[in-house]
Structures are given as C-alpha cells and as structure tokens.
Write a structure and sequence with these properties.
five-stranded mixed beta sheet, 11 helices, Arc Repressor Mutant, subunit A, globular, 10 strands, about 45% helix, five-stranded antiparallel beta sheet, about 290 residues, 2 domains, Jelly Rolls, alpha+beta
C-alpha cells in the first residue's frame, strides 16, 4: 500500500537524510548535501506538505513518477508536488539541483488559496516547467538565497523565510504564465476537451454520464463525442470509462481503501457493479488485481 508521510522530518528520516530540519514546516536542501547513506529509490508515497524541485544536471539515471505517470526530460526543469499527488523517484548520485519542502501552515499569513493562486500545484495541471539556461541560473540564485536564509543565525529567520518563499512562488507563477503564453493557441475543440478532462477530475464521483458533462460545457452530447473521437480516438463514454479504470487501478495498487470504497470514489454505489465494470476492462476482479501488488 502507498506510504503516507505527515511530517517533513518523518520523510527525511525515511530517505536516509542525515540532518533533520530545524523547522517543523520548512526545509531546503541542495542535492550536494545528500550522502551515500541516503536511499536512491522511493516507492509511491504521499505527503502532507508541498515540494518544489529544481533539477539542473546529472539526471540521466534519475527518474520520477507523478500520479503513476513517468515524467521524462528532467534536465533544466522545475516540478511541483502538493499533498494530493502520488510520487515515486529514483535518484542518480550525480544529480544536481535543489528541493524546498513546506507545509501550508508555513504560509499561514497568506490568505489566498495555494492551488488556485499557484496553479502549478494543482493536481489537474502537469506540474512541471521546462526552463531555459537563463531561467535556471535565475532560479538557482533564488534557491541559494532560501538555503542561506535557512542556515542563517538571524533572530527573524522564520519570518524572512516566509516572505522569501512567498515572493519565490510569485516569481515562479510569472515564469509559468509566460510559458503558457508561448504555447500554441488551442482550437475550440482542444479547449473544450481540456475543460472536459478537468471536469472529470473534479466530478467523477458524482457524475459519470456523457450528457451531464456535455451540459456543463454547454454543448450537445453528439458534439462532445465528436471532440473525443477527434482528439482521443474514442467516444466520450469510453473516455470516461477509461478514466474511471485508471483511477481504480491506482487506488487498488497504492491505497488501503476497501473495494467498495474504491468503487464509490469513481461513481459506483454498488460494489458488484464496480466489480463487473473492472473485470470487463481489465479481465480480472478488483480483488484479484490488488493481490498482484500486495
């Protein structure tokens, strides 16, 4: 089953990092500080805090998975994790970069909603930003500043780190928005398909019918079908089914939820209906699928 870390120091201990954080809700480290005693692999887990990672170089043998999806092209990249993500990694000893961990409480003075104001933390987004050499150089200075402030003897270290982290998040938001502006303008169908996927991620427990999603989007059911056929090569009904299956497989592999709870989370009120659905697409029952991974 998936491991869940509630505290930053609990997680650092599990990874073999030798120096616990002096602050319960914030930590910053350079990959240069990681010793041979640290583990090189972590199986899927969740944690009750946020993470920002800058990977610069030495990543040819480094790999990460976010929500069971493998992420490639790690060199010169910035990626983000929130408590809602499932994460796994394998680290090369040559990896260069920085990591910041912080709990929501660390920014308790900030009245905004983190995953709304800083959407790169939102589970519905890709959560990874490719950087130019200039951007890497600029962000490296920001990470180094946080690192120096963390190790500073200042009486106001905590307050300085709080304000510095918030300023850093807004700087990243600016980079992210500039990157979004450079992307090709989506066609009407692509835009509607993206909204359809986002609605699925937020509404799948309550809504499983194509007609309901079409109404949310203000289009006909047949037009939604034409969109999914054009982009995903399958009908909207089949796309919803494949999405439910993906969520079910992840929960069965990585969570301790009962079979009935897994089915309920993807819109099945009756466990027998969920079992029939799962066997239809996967060829085995949910319990048989789970046994393969326990």
């Amino acid at each position: 089953m998936i491991i869940h870390y509630r505290e930053i120091n609990e997680y650092l201990l599990a990874t073999g990092f030798e120096q616990p954080s002096e602050l319960a809700d914030f930590f910053v480290l350079s990959f240069d500080e990681i010793t041979d005693s640290s583990v090189e692999f972590m199986p899927p887990y969740q944690k009750d805090f946020y993470q920002i990672t800058l990977l610069i170089s030495g990543v040819s043998d480094t790999s990460i998975e976010i929500d069971t999806e493998r992420v490639d092209r790690l060199e010169n990249s910035l990626f983000f994790l929130s408590p809602t993500h499932v994460y796994a990694w394998r680290r090369s000893g040559a990896t260069k970069g920085y990591i910041v961990y912080f709990k929501r409480e660390f920014l308790d003075f900030y009245q905004g909603a983190l995953q709304t104001d800083f959407p790169f933390f939102d589970i519905t987004n890709q959560g990874i930003l490719s950087l130019s050499d200039t951007e890497v150089a600029q962000l490296t200075l920001d990470f180094q500043k946080l690192h120096r402030e963390y190790h500073s003897p200042s009486l106001y270290r905590y307050q300085i780190l709080q304000s510095s982290l918030l300023a850093f998040l807004f700087k990243i938001k600016s980079l992210d928005e500039l990157a979004q502006q450079k992307l090709p303008v989506l066609s009407r169908k692509q835009e509607l398909f993206a909204k359809f996927k986002s609605l699925l991620q937020h509404r799948i427990q309550a809504d499983t019918q194509v007609t309901i999603y079409a109404s949310y989007l203000g289009i006909s059911e047949s037009y939604l079908n034409s969109i999914t056929k054009a982009i995903a090569m399958i009908t909207a009904k089949e796309y919803i089914a494949q999405y439910r299956l993906k969520l079910a497989k992840s929960a069965l592999k990585y969570s301790s939820r009962t079979i009935a709870e897994v089915g309920y989370c993807i819109g099945f009120e009756e466990p027998t209906h969920f079992s029939r659905f799962f066997k239809k697409y996967e060829g085995v029952t949910p319990s048989a699928y789970r046994k393969k991974y326990t």
